[in-house]
Amino acid sequence: MTSHDSVAQTPVTRALPDPMIRLTDVEQRYKTRDHDVLALTDVTLDIGKGEFLVLLGPSGCGKTTLLRIIAGLLQSTGGEVKIDGTPLWTKNTRNDTAMQELGVVFQEANLFPWMTIEQNIALPLKLRGVGKAERLARARELCATVGISGFEKRWPRQLSGGMRQRAAIARALSTRPKILLMDEPFGALDAMTRDAMNLELQRIWMETGCTVVLVTHSIREAVFLADRVLLLSPRPGRMDTLTEIEIDRPRTTYVQSSPEFQNYELALRQRLDSFA
Amino acid sequence: MLGKYASWIATPLLLVLLVLIWEAYVTIFDVSPFILPGPGAVWDATLVLLSEPKTYSHIGITVYETVVGFLLAVVIGIVFGGVLGKIRWLERTLNPLIVGLQVMPKVALIPLFIVWFGFGPTSKVVLAAVIAFFPIMTNTILGIKSVESGHRDVMLALNASRWQTFRDVELQNALPFILTGMEVGIVLATIGAIVGEYLGGSQGLGYMAVATLNAFDVTSMFGVIFLLTILGLILYFAVVMLRRYVTPWHEAVASARDS
Ligand SMILES: Nc1ncnc2c1ncn2[C@@H]1O[C@H](COP(=O)(O)OP(=O)(O)OP(=O)(O)O)[C@@H](O)[C@H]1O
Ligand SMILES: [Mg+2]
Question: How far away, in angstroms, is A216 Cα from ligand 2 center?
């Protein structure tokens, strides 16, 4: 139990002077026919500008719920979400300015089968009224960024799962959002593709300087990608610990075999096991 | 490999076999041509029909009624289906009425349509449209409602307006469903036009079938039925072909092309 003495796990949150995302007392109750479920409670957290935050926790602890709340897909039953100082909701109306800053990637690529890859990637720009030539140029540029050049004119079903997920990331990036929200984006991919995608995501994040909130089940993925890992404990989902990962960037796949990396992994693993 | 070509050989063979059995039956049992003429006689009668100019004007009338009725059904069916698919409370309110109208035998309305629209082609156009309308509308509603929740989430996260979601997602998602409705619709429209001609008026292939029967020319009547079948097939496959151009992205289209 002494192996991770060096790992700083703090149960407390510190307020940031100018956070990208501010969560205050966020709570979510799901009402079902016979009983209410308290899925998430007491979430108070500041996420810094340009930070890479990973949400980690056992199944059913409310990770997806929290991400959907930040994405504006779900209005929390309690508390408040502020995006770059602007409340995401005013009464029951979503704030358009706050929504503009967000890009979301889901576990499934969710590409539209009736649009080619470039049309899919350009869709957010189309919805914002960007002209056809301009948005398709941006789509081609993004295909290069995520490594699927040459597939612009293909239908989504003609791409592999990994390539589809790359396209989904490109779509989320098309509007140059300040915040990228990802719910187990690589959960459906094989281990090798997943490692490659993690490296690419780190590169894209470093290039764009955006704030990322990523949900994962994988401790390794969490330690590899995160500036901070927020561990959620289950029933009801609440903040357990925040772990700062102080490993230099850019991180390489080999860093995973370093003692400090394994220290972080072990510390998180022990904390997770304590929930069971 | 074998499966790929089997249908190209088996289907014509089957047809030839059926015609041979028909011919044999008529010859062996010496069936009266007033009951069932042989295939050879029907073929000759068809050729005679095709040599008469008035046949073409009858064909033209039937095609006109079917196609115009069908197109009306497509436009109105998609508009109604689109509105009802998007506005849930309206659909719930109108649902009993829609189901009622759908199960009502539309053919029973022909006398009414003749009173309203006369003995000319208009009453048949209306009947064809009314019959073809329902499968197109209900399939449009189904297609709009069956958008995957993941796709809805994407549009929600992109802060898309209701109109944008309709144009770029719901309508596109509904297209394969609409095409299925149209395949049913074109068959029903053809039936509608012909039954309309049977029951009232003096034009079209349906009228010709009745006229030849009244003249005890059963062989020619079979010729008319043969022409009607060919016409129905052409219209049906025209709609089926549409799928390739309207939804080239669809799995069903891709697998049909590959096999
Ligand atoms: N729409 C809903 N209605 C009712 N209960 C829900 C709903 N969505 C989630 N829940 C409940 O809320 C809790 C948290 O669910 P959530 O999907 O956020 O967990 P998760 O951490 O993302 O799990 P996983 O790791 O398996 O994806 C679960 O107990 C779940 O049953
Ligand atoms: Mg989840």
Answer: 8
**The ligand 1 atom nearest the CA atom of A61:** 21
| Per-residue pLDDT, A189 | 80
> Tell me, what's the ipTM?
0.88
- Nearest 5°: phi and psi at B145? -75, -20
DSSP state of A128: T
Give mean pLDDT in consecutive 10-residue pieces for chain A, a chain of 276 residues.
56 76 91 86 91 93 93 91 90 88 93 95 94 93 88 92 91 92 88 86 90 94 94 90 89 90 91 86
Burial of residue A48 (CB within 10 Å: 0-12, 13-18, 19+) is middle
**Contact (CB, 8 A) for B247 and B239:** no
Angle at A144 between CA A138 and CA A146, to 5 degrees: 100
What is the predicted pLDDT for the residue at B77? 96
Per-residue tokens: A181? 């929200």
Is beta strand A36-47 parallel, antiparallel or unpaired with respect to A86-87?
unpaired
Helix ranges (DSSP H) in B29-120: 39-51, 53-86, 88-103, 110-117
Strands (E) in chain A, as ranges, are 9-10, 21-31, 36-47, 52-56, 78-83, 86-87, 89-90, 93-94, 102-105, 179-183, 211-216, 228-233, 238-244
User: Which two three-digit tokens encode residue A273?
Assistant: 């096991």
- Structure token pair of residue A178: 């300040």
B159 closest CB neighbour out of A96, A106, A114:
A96
pTM for this one?
Answer: 0.85
- List A residues 173-212 in contact with B (Cβ-Cβ < 8 A): none
Cα torsion angle, A92, A94, A98, A104, sign: positive
